[in-house]
Write a structure and sequence with these properties.
The protein folds into two domains: 80 residues, Helix Hairpins; 110 residues, Cupredoxins -  blue copper proteins (Immunoglobulin-like). Helices cover 35% and strands 28% of the residues. It is α+β, with helices and mostly antiparallel strands. Bound molecules: copper (II) ion (CU).
Length: 208
């Protein structure tokens, strides 16, 4: 949950939007299908020998055509919504973005800032600014994730994976970051805090 935020971070908003879109059409489709099933079960239930004769009022191909057209429309719209969202998921081309290095290890996280400073298990970022993380691992496979921002990326030795996010408002989020790849006995405790500071506090810290 991200209920602590005043404004919804764009990464979370993207996934929420897609989730509710699929939830709406998935629910609508199930309501139509289950209603028809129940309706026909009742209408054509066994009445012994004295039941009404079954009459086909519509030619079969018309029903098939309409069903196929409706299915194609909904699936095409779903595909469009999904691909349109990719623009918010891919790493943005933002010259003002802050790049931070993330090194996973058994069992914790080292964050390296633009000025060379490093912090252990504390990711500090400026509010309302694009943050791009360059994620790698010192030893085994790990996975870096922040559930409330709906972001996650594998941390692989010898490889750098990127993810991005933006948090609109300052705040401290305890244990918001955790490892999502079983990596040894310390895995469950492989957490870190996310500290979001104002732009001026960030500038002061970077200058110090
Ligand atoms: Cu782990």
């Amino acid at each position: 949950m991200y209920s602590g935020f005043l404004a919804t971070p764009p990464t979370t908003a993207t996934y929420d939007y897609l989730f509710y879109w699929y939830l709406f059409f998935g629910t609508a489709a199930s309501v139509v299908v289950i209603s028809l099933l129940v309706f026909f079960m009742v209408k054509y239930r066994s009445r012994g020998d004295g039941g009404p004769e079954i009459v086909h009022k519509t030619e079969g191909w018309k029903v098939v055509l309409v069903t196929v057209l409706i299915s194609i429309s909904i699936l095409s719209a779903a595909e469009y919504q999904t691909f349109a969202s990719f623009g918010n998921i891919e790493i943005p081309n933002d010259p003002n973005a802050v790049h931070i290095g993330v090194q996973a290890f058994q069992w914790g996280w080292t964050f390296t800032y633009p000025d060379g400073k490093t912090l252990l298990n504390n990711l500090t970022v400026p509010a309302d600014r694009t943050v791009i993380l360059n994620i790698s691992s010192k030893d085994v496979f790990h996975s870096f994730g922040i559930s409330m921002l709906a972001v996650k990326e594998d941390a692989i030795p010898g490889k750098v994976n990127q993810l991005w996010f933006l948090v609109p408002d300052p705040g401290v989020y305890k244990n918001a970051i955790r490892c999502f790849e079983l990596c040894g006995v310390g895995h469950a405790f492989m957490v870190a805090d996310l500290t979001v500071v104002s732009q001026s506090a960030w500038d002061t810290w970077m200058g110090s």
